[in-house]
Write the structure tokens for this entry.
Amino acid sequence: MIRYLQNSIENMRDIGGYKNNEGGIIKLGKLIRSNLPINLSNKDISIINKMGINTIIDLRSYEEIKTRKSIFEGNKDFNIYHIGMNIGKDIPEKEEFVSKSYIEMLTLQKEIKKIFEILSKSDRIIYFCNAGKDRTGVITALILKLLGVSEKDIIDDYMYTKVFMKEILKKYANNNTKILNIITPKRIYMEKFLEEFENLYGSIEKYLSLIGIEENIIKNIKQKFIG
């Protein structure tokens, strides 16, 4: 299942459409993951407005945001949240460190709590980092896990970035094979993250409770995004 948004952004796609473990379907048009949106045309913005999307979550660090602003900055049609995830913005030294960096992101409790609080208040959201791969990938995994989506589908969703960002990642690596191998999404990265997450926390509900997310917020998110 993949719902790619046909616009100027390479890796902007809907995470809806997946079945969950109770027979429900994750609603379409509600949760849109993306790489950094900087090239949207006025037509693209119009389509996003017609979809009813009014909430933007920029997962990047504040330094990154200052350096490269998204197309949504300053647009009063959208509620924009700057989360400031500092972990996951740098390239790990080795491939085996990628999944470790994903686990390290879970220590950003204040930031992740804020994201789930926004999810409970808004129902049509675009969220992104730079490539829409690491920080966006981890947040997507947590969201889909809460909504009861299978690990196979979570991993498959993560791997679509390899398809859509292939040329951009090659260009970024600039013929450096080691860097390209590290930054190219691999199933093992997300598999190890999900395995370690389970070992550390047991369930997504326990993790969210640990970081201060109340049960009514969890219930609200499930009701809002599961059809």
In short: The first helix runs from residue 42 to 50. The mean pLDDT is 94.
